Each structure stands twice: as C-alpha cells, then as structure tokens.
Amino acid sequence: MLACNVQLLGAKKKNLAGFSTATSQFRVGHIEQTEVFQTTPPALKMRACRLVAAKSTLAAHVDSIRGDPSGKQGRAYREEIRKKIEKWQEPPPAKQPKPFPVPDSEPKKKRGGCRLRKMKERYAITDMRKLANRMQFGVRKESSLGDGLGEGYGMLGQAGNGKLRVSVGQSKLAAKVAKKYDSLNMTFF
Predict the structure, then answer these.
(1) 88: nearest Cα among 38, 33, 42
(2) Which of 48, 26, 50 is CA-nearest to residue 37?
(3) What is the pLDDT of residues 43-73, one digit of tens each?
(4) What is the rounded CA–CA span in Å between residue 6 and residue 182?
(5) Is-contact 131 155, C-beta < 8 A?
(6) Per the confidence metrics, is the pTM higher than 0.85?
(7) Residues linked to residue 152 through DSSP beta bridges, in sequence order
C-alpha cells in the first residue's frame, strides 16, 4: 500500500454542508493517535503525518518479508522521525554578511566620442567654482554668513575690485548651438 493511502486509513469523511474546509481538522486517520503526531507542534503536523506514513510503509515492507524479527529497523525509523521533527523546529541559521569583492585597481575603460565630450563639457567645473575652491595663503576666510561658518568664497572677488562676479567665457558647446540657431534664423527670413 502507498504511503499517501496509509495516511488516510481510518479518516472519517466529513459533510460540512457547504461550509469552509479551512477550519476543519486534518485529513488523517489512525496516524493521528500516534505519540509522534500528538507531540508535534500544529504547524508541522501535516509534514509529520506524511513522514510517519512513509516510514510505517517502509516498516511494513520489512515486516512482510520477515527482514528484521528483533524490531531494530522499526526503532531506527522512529528515531529518524524524531530527529527530523526536532530539526524542523530549529530556527534557521543566521545570515552571514557577505563581504564585497576586492575592487579592480585599473580604471574602467570609457568610450570616447562626440556624445561623451559634450557631456563632460556640460558637467565640467565652472570658472566661478574653481575660484571659490582656491584659497589664498595668509588671508582670513570670508564666508557667505559673515562669521566664518558659511561657505567660503575662496579666491572669488580677490582680483582687486571686490566683486564676486566672474567674466563668463562662452563654452564651445554653447558657441556651436548659437551658431547653429543663427544659421537657422537666417534661412527663414
């Protein structure tokens, strides 16, 4: 007999008259009265029932061919079932933090070209930011808040006239765009 059929031996078919089967008892028969099934926590009862049915089927095969008259094999199966149920109840092992791989020392190869050149020019550091980042030796830092706590001006405004404005040189990209639009405007008039 198959283990799935052994599991159902002695089970009573319940007529729930259309009600939900979610609250009904497990579909198990005589295995429900075993000590192993009774001591198992409710969350693991169905797994334990399948395991007991499978091992009892194996024990029945051993008995049918008179393979173990002392019953040593049956006790071994029972011990195996007990160990498995205990193993199921153990908490899962803690997840170990995985270290990051060693970074490559060589820089990544970046493709060149017109698009990349335009992007670099667009996000390049401005002259104003270059002057603000530069410090003059021996001169007290002047900040936006006036008390030395804010963002400093660096060499910005140190040119002599005291203004913070920097003459803006037109970038190559902006010059190209302006030239292109000038040529377009001439063709429409």
Answers:
(1) 42
(2) 48
(3) 898 899 899 999 999 999 888 888 888 889 9
(4) 90
(5) yes
(6) no
(7) 143
